[in-house]
Specification:
The structure is a single chain. The protein is α+β, with helices and mostly antiparallel strands. Helix content is about 35%, strand content about 30%. Strands 1, 2, 3, 4, 5, 6, 7, 8 and 9 form a 9-stranded mixed β-sheet that branches.
């Protein structure tokens, strides 16, 4: 009976994470998410160990920023959170307005406790960017995903040797590093897009077709531009 009780607790925690990522938003939630994404970019850029991430950022076709990915569970573990996708032209350095996304995953195993992480995913080619925007993408299956390089002394030549579709970086409990997100599902939030921009838009129209601008996201765009090392 005790094992089943623990199992039920794990299920409830996982469901709470999943439902929380899809919950209805208030009028200011999208702007709060954008502001949190700006703070996340600034926190990563301020770390000397993340210099290679900043070089990859300049070569990327987009960046997914999740200010808080929650992970919790016992027996059944789950993780999830909301964030933004900003497209990037590596030739001109121009950034698009942000579109809203969720990321979540579930796993079975002996897990206990809870953890919150800031997570950044760099999208390194047009194919991966289109897949993320037009589909419900499972990382590692629909797009190759690798842990991004972290550490001092990594030269620009390291970047040219990489060929993954997406590179992941994370900050958890004050520590920066790479994490594996294979198996996680990334999905657009059309409801948030439409609420924020006040018109029937989706991620493709925002990021690929660049149909709108977002003056209130200027701080995020500036933080991204300043983070790039070329």
């Amino acid at each position: 009976m005790r094992m089943f009780r623990y199992f039920g607790v794990g299920v409830l925690m996982f469901l709470a994470l999943t439902v929380g990522a899809r919950a209805d938003s208030g009028p200011n939630d999208q702007q709060i998410m954008i502001d949190q994404a700006r703070s996340t970019v600034q926190a990563f850029a301020a770390q000397p160990d993340m210099a290679e991430m900043r070089r990859l950022l300049g070569q990327s076709y987009g960046i997914l920023i999740f200010p808080q990915i929650l992970k919790a569970g016992f027996i059944i573990g789950g993780s999830g959170g909301s964030g933004v996708l900003v497209g990037h032209d590596p030739n001109t350095g121009a950034w698009t307005a942000p579109a809203f996304f969720t990321m979540g995953s579930g796993s079975v195993g002996l897990q206990i406790g809870a953890e919150a992480s800031q997570v950044v995913l760099l999208v390194m080619n047009r194919k991966a960017l289109s897949a993320i925007i037009n589909n419900k993408v499972k990382l590692g299956a629909d797009a190759t995903v690798a842990v991004g390089p972290v550490g001092k002394g990594l030269g620009a030549g390291v970047t040219t040797a990489m060929n993954a579709d997406i590179y992941t970086f994370a900050r958890s409990k004050g520590l920066f590093g790479g994490i594996s997100l294979s198996g996680s599902v990334v999905q657009g939030r059309d409801d948030w897009d439409q609420s924020y921009y006040g018109e029937p838009l989706n991620a493709a129209e925002i990021v690929l077709n660049r149909k709108v601008s977002a003056p209130a996201a200027a701080g995020l765009i500036q933080a991204l531009s300043q983070a790039v090392i070329r």
